Amino acid sequence: AGSGTYTRHGFIFSSLAGCLEKRSEDSGLPVLSVVRDTESQLLPSVGAVVTCKVCGINSRFAKVHILYVGSTPLKSTFRGTIRREDIRATEKDKVEVYKSFRPGDIVLAKVISLGDAQSNYLLSTAENELGVVVAHSEAGVQMVPVSWCEMQCPQTHSKDFRKVARVQPQFLQT
């Protein structure tokens, strides 16, 4: 019996979930080990800051795909929802989803709940540090933030409403 296994009554049992590895030792006897996938899947947890991409919006919420937890990329994307009332901390009744997000935007959000039967994570951008970090204009150019609620295209100078994140230095990639 090798690592990840134990013996009982002359049989070898696995002590963890993983893949069976069989190798020969100097004595000629095979050694059976069970090894885990070293990159176990990271899951978004309540309170975690996640990076996501907006895939659809309507008047009540924005649908997103979660791509990163902190700075760790996920092996597979998870679906999330940012409800209208979770977009801003103040004046929640005046928030309009289409003035906060657009499909294709990259957003920093915080996980507030693990969701429901549809396996959607509920997310919030109701902090100054959370919101849109990357957006593209109609011309396909990356927009620059001009205030907490507007971004501007450097090429056409047109402005669009967004819930802009005040990005903290630790979230900036160099």
UniProtKB/TrEMBL annotation:
All residue ranges annotated as the S1 motif domain in the record: 45-126
Keyword Cell inner membrane: no
Keywords: Cytoplasm, Exosome
Entry-linked SUPFAM superfamilies: Nucleic acid-binding proteins
Compartment(s) of residence: Nucleus, Nucleolus
GO cellular component: cytoplasm; nuclear exosome (RNase complex); nucleolus
Transmembrane segments: none
Keyword Isomerase set for record: no
Molecular-function GO terms, alphabetical: RNA binding
CDD domains registered for this protein in UniProt: S1_CSL4
Any GO BP: RNA processing
Top-level taxonomic group: Eukaryota
Protein name per the record: EXOS1 protein
Organism: Steatornis caripensis (Oilbird)
Originating gene: Exosc1
